[in-house]
Amino acid sequence: MIHDFYVHKGGYYYVSYNGLDLNDISFFVNHSKKPNLITNDGETFITIKEIVAGEELTIDYETYEEPSV
């Protein structure tokens, strides 16, 4: 996963101080006008279609709100 998200140069990966720890599940969800996920609280994602292995996880960003702190 590191090689997908961080720069590799001179034999080193340049990773932020917190690494991937700051990324929640929403980091792995992309936008679509025909999503396969919904959320009511911004933390729990629910499938609305069958999702096959390797398929992209999507949500309509216009209906997505991050949880309040």
UniProtKB/TrEMBL annotation:
Top-rank taxon, per record: Bacteria
SET domain boundaries: 13-61
Name recorded for this polypeptide: SET domain-containing protein
